[in-house]
């Protein structure tokens, strides 16, 4: 199936079969597609926390819009972005890049110096907003990969960010939660959206040609 | 090819063949995958401006980080998000949804009333930030679709947003520019990134299992 067929196949699943697990092989594929997502300046300024533990998920579900999905899906992917841009974080990925490409150390110094200078001028809140945006590219890839594998999923923003951050210990990791993706298998009897027509603005409303 | 193979194939193209055009059929597929991207509350709070006109692109290139790509790529997709959430904009897509699903008019009123109430409490700046994030899901789908078709592309944030908004008349459309995607065919001789190894954090750094 093509990407377009996969995207037409998927929908935001509203109820999951609690006993049906996504295989480790398929979960790895979803994470791999997400890992390959491009990000601004190649900084990969977000991480994915894979939560399978049910007790932990019950804690995350408090204040969420879909508490049943949080607990009944096969697992929950928490997209979490850097809380700030620091010289060390910028260097870490560029040091890796020069090493893996067998380039002389410091090859990207003039570029990373500019990045560091630019971010140093911005308030930390803007750093997080910018980093959070990148994680949505990864969310897109995870959604597309799940659909390719005919695994159901639900992207979600309706949750208590502060609670999720605390429960998962994200501040200690320099991260803040952005969005979630529930993955698993739809319980068609309770998933009221499963049979509904997908609705989008038509192409001539969605696009403007110039 | 699978999505993972497509994502490994793609790279942020640094130079394009100015004479090689993406076919209308393939451009439509890229836009269709983007149109199918899910968005928060299904509001589809972004649009894609397809800029093919070279003179217009020369104007957009001023202050951009990749002015040659802006002009030499086959076309430029400008992702632009709603500048604010209004009751009318929220109603427009839900009216469409009830109509296309043959549901009674007002079927989603209790839900959209909550949305309207929530957004009314937020400053307009937060509206745009939230809408802008959704457009990155669409950017992800456009990137993935281009890669499936073996069309090169470059996601870009390095441009003069205010200038782009003005040149494209976005304020009059209630939109603000977010990010760009150049699409076309790599000029391998000038595209220095084409032969470089793709570098990402390894899976055990990128993901945290709980």
Jot down its keywords.
globular, 4-stranded antiparallel β-sheet, 210 residues, homodimer, 9 helices, NADH Oxidase
Strand residues, percent of chain A: 15-25%
Helix count from the secondary structure assignment of chain A = 9
Sheet with the most strands: spatial strand order of chain A: 1-2-4-3
Span between termini of chain A: 32 Å
Helix content of chain A: 40-55%
Q: How many individual β-strands of chain A?
A: 5
**H-E string of chain A:** HHEHHEHHHEHEHE
Number of domains of chain A: 1
Shape of chain A: globular
Ranges of chain A where pLDDT stays below 50 over 5 or more residues in a row are: none
CATH architecture of chain A: 3-Layer(aba) Sandwich
Query: Which two chains touch over the largest interface?
Result: A-B, 63 and 63 residues
Top CATH class of chain A: Alpha Beta
| Alpha-beta classification of chain A | alpha+beta
Alpha carbon gyration radius of chain A: 19 Å
Chain oligomer state = homodimer
CATH superfamily of chain A: NADH Oxidase
Mean pLDDT of chain A: 97
**Biggest pleated sheet of chain A:** 4 strands, antiparallel
Task: Give me the CATH fold name of chain A.
Answer: NADH Oxidase
């Amino acid at each position: 199936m093509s990407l377009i067929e996969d995207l037409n196949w998927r929908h935001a699943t509203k109820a999951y079969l609690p006993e049906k697990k996504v295989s480790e092989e398929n979960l790895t594929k979803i994470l791999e597609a997400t890992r390959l997502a491009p990000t601004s300046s190649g900084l990969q300024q977000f991480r994915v926390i894979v939560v399978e533990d049910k007790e932990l998920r019950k804690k995350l579900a408090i204040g969420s819009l879909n508490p049943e999905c949080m607990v009944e899906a096969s697992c929950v992917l928490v997209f979490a972005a850097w809380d700030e841009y620091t010289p060390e974080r910028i260097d870490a990925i560029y040091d890796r890049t020069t090493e893996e490409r067998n380039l002389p150390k410091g090859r990207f110094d003039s570029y990373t110096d500019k990045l560091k200078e630019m971010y140093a001028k911005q308030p930390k809140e803007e750093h997080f907003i910018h980093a959070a945006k990148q994680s949505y590219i990864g969310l897109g890839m995870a959604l597309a990969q799940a659909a390719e594998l005919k695994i159901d999923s639900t992207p979600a923003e309706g949750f208590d960010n502060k609670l999720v951050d605390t429960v998962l210990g994200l501040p200690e990791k320099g991260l803040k939660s952005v969005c979630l993706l529930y993955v698993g298998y739809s319980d068609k009897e309770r998933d009221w959206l499963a049979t509904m027509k997908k609705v989008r603005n038509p192409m001539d409303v969605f696009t403007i040609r110039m």
